[in-house]
Design brief:
Length: about 100
């Protein structure tokens, strides 16, 4: 679609996004008593990022991408997100100064 990306590059980004989603929701489903302070801070950040539009849906933000993957949120990454939005694999929910990428 844009900037001559190959299917392998797109699939690699999808795998990295899936890793970020799995890591995030593993923390959210973990019992609070078993969390250390760093994990508890992440847990509270995840809860604060959730809105009524994203309630019950899997989503990530750019901070999750930086935290759990080796991807950089550069122009190429945003082009890939645009391709995934075009294919209806992701949708954007904006609000509160954050852009949430909802997995559809």
């Amino acid at each position: 679609m844009k900037s001559r990306l190959t299917y392998d590059q797109i699939n690699d980004v999808i795998k990295e996004i899936n890793k970020a989603v799995i890591s995030k929701y593993k923390i959210l489903h973990q019992p609070k008593k078993s969390m250390n302070s760093v994990t508890r801070n992440l847990y509270h950040r995840f809860i604060d990022e959730e809105t009524k539009d994203t309630k019950g849906r899997y989503f990530i933000v750019e901070a999750d991408i930086k935290e759990f993957t080796t991807l950089k949120a550069d122009k190429k990454f945003h082009v890939l997100l645009n391709i995934l939005r075009h294919c209806r694999r992701l949708s954007e929910v904006r609000g509160g100064g954050l852009t949430r990428y909802v997995i559809t």
